[in-house]
Amino acid sequence: MFKGKRVVVLGAARSGIAAAQVLLASGAEVILTDITPLHQMPEAERVALQNMNIRLVTGSHPPALLQGTDLIVKNPGISPNIEFLAAARAMNIKWISELELAWLVTEAELVAVTGTNGKTTTTALLGEIFSCGPRPSAVGGNIGVPLTEVSFGKSREWILIAEVSSFQLEDCYQLHPRVAVFTNITPDHLDRHGTMENYIAAKLRLVQNQTEADYVVVNMDDPVLSALNLGRGKRVGYSLSPSAGADCYADEDWFYWRGEKIAPVAELKIPGRHNRQNALAAVAAAKVMDLPAETIRRGLAAFAGVEHRLEFVGEYRGIRFYNDSKATNPESTRIALNSFARKVVLLAGGYDKGADFRALAGLFRDKVRLLVAYGATGEKMVRQLAQGGFTEAVLAEDLAGAFSRATERARPGDIVLLSPACASWDQYKNFEERGRHFKSLVAGWRDKV
Asked: What is the set of active-site residues?
C-alpha cells in the first residue's frame, strides 16, 4: 500500500515516531517534520529519530516538503489550519491520522472507545478483560501507546482495543471498528472544533464505515447519545437502571447482560457511579465479542484503575491526596467531585479550551470546601464560579503554588484533589506530566512533614 510512496509525517512525539517506523517497514520514503528543533526534543525522541532512515526536518514545517509528496500522516494535536496543511490542501495532497494508518496496516479486529469522559478507563478495563480471554489482544491509541505500535502486521486472530479522540477521528476515512463504544458526549475541545455540532460530527466518524454486522455500544443514560443516529451497526445499550430497557445494566448490586448475571458490583475496585457506567460499557463490548461471563468477571475483579484518573496517591497526616489530572474538561471534574461523599480541597486550572465554568457553581458549593485555581484559566474560573455564587476560592500562579496553598489550609480528614477541568498545555506537555508533577509535590510534602 505504501511501498514506493513518499509520505510526510507531520509531528514527531511518540505517535509520529511510531508512524514513521511503520511506514519505513511498509516500504515508504519517509520525511518527518516537527516544529520543535531537534535539540529541544526529549532525549528518547531525539535518539529514536536520529537512528531512523528518514529525512528529518525540525524547527519548522517548510511547504517545499510537499513537492512530490503522496500522503501526509498528521499528529492529531496539530491544527488543520496551519500554513503547511493549507498548502497541502491547495495541492490536493491528502492527510490522515496515525490512527487511520494503524488501521490500514492491520487485519486485526478493532474495539474502539470514544466519548468525552470515561474513554481511558473503559479502554484499559477492556484491555484487562480481553487479556483474560482466548484471543491475543493489545491496547493502544489515545491511551498513551500509539495504535501503530501494536497494530502493524497483526492477523485477524488479534483484537485491538483503542481509545480514540475527536482529534484523531477528524482525519479518519476508512477506519472500521467491529465494535464502537460511546461513553458520553458533553461540550469539549470547542476551541478546536468551534461548535458542539462539529465536535459530535468528529465523534461520529467512528461509525461511518460500520455495517449491519458490526456493533455500536451506547450509554443510554447520556441524553446526547440517546438522541443520535449512530450509523448502521447493531445498537447495544447500557444503563445504570434496569428499567431503561438496556442490554447491559446494573440491578441489586450486580452487573447484568440481557438477564445473565455477570459480576457483583462490589468486585469493581474503582469508585464512583461513572466507573460503574464504564464497567457496563466494557461488559457490553466484551459480550458482543463473545467473551463468557466468567472471563469478564475475572477481568473486572483484576482491574486496579488508571494512572491520573482518580488515582489515590497517599494519606499523610490524615490528609488524602488524589491525582485526577486526566480531568481536562469541566464534566470530568464534575464526575470526580461526585465520587466523594465529603467536601474536598480542589486544585483546578490550566489551559483554556473555551469552557464555561458557571454551571459548576452549585456543585462546588456542595462538594468543594476550598478551590485553589491556577494557570491560564485560574482567574476566569474563579470569576465565573463567583457569578454562580461559589466564592471559596484563592488563586495561584502554577500547580506548585496551588499545592502549597492547598496544604497550608488542609486539615486532617480532608481530601486534596487535583482535578483541573482544563487541559495542561499552558504549563505542561500533557496531562501525564502534570499528574506526575502533582505526585512529586505530594512526595516532597510527605517527606517534610
From this structure: 119, 142, 189
